[in-house]
Amino acid sequence: MKHAWRVRDGRGPEYTLWRDELGDSLARIGLTLDDINEEPPAPPATQTAGHTTLWIAATLQYQREGTALFDLVRPSPRH
Known about the structure:
mainly alpha; 2 helices; 52% helix
């Protein structure tokens, strides 16, 4: 990401540019702004092999997406 936004500066023009670039960057990796607030998958209520396998797969996907999001935002330049 090329645009910077300092949280303590509030939501001014820099925030608008940063947020727009964030949305575009998320789309390139297959995520949306709504994905940022997604909760991790909850363990299955019934512990069958199939449910547990799906939960593990969902948890691994959640972690991969979280890492991709971190790697996307972390390098945003700071002033």
